Write a sequence for this structure.
């Protein structure tokens, strides 16, 4: 997967902008869609996507390192993405606390594969993205179960 398409996937995955039609969804997928909380508008997601692509491309990772990096990010993003779903029952504080814990674990794994310079670039970019996500979580009303 090339860098551009990967980062498009990350944005879509992280910010939860799936666009499957109802007739294409299984019952489990329909339930998942009903529980998903959208914290960014389409325009905001597009802006974030463009920014992320530009920033991460500056890391200039080798193909092998990029594949490892992508695998780790996608693994944690899948877990993080579920934290704010209605069926998880997490409060805003729970979501942010659990996200922070997952990011610590993710970063431990990334430090093993990235050079200190690459890791510093990752942290700089990712921290900016996480700040946007956390700010939006704080502004979002989550239904009480």
């Amino acid at each position: 997967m090339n860098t551009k398409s990967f980062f498009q996937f990350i944005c879509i995955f992280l910010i939860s902008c799936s666009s499957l039609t109802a007739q294409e969804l299984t019952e489990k997928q329909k339930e998942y869609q009903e529980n998903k909380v959208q914290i960014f508008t389409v325009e905001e997601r597009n802006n974030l996507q463009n920014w992320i692509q530009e920033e991460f491309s500056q890391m200039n990772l080798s193909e092998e390192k990029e594949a490892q990096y992508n695998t780790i990010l996608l693994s944690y993003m899948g877990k993080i993405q579920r934290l704010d779903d209605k069926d998880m029952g997490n409060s805003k504080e729970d979501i942010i606390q659990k996200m922070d814990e997952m990011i610590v674990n993710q970063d431990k794994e990334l430090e093993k594969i990235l050079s200190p310079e690459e890791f510093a670039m990752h942290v700089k970019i990712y921290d900016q993205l996480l700040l946007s996500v956390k700010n939006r979580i704080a502004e979002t009303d989550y239904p009480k179960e």
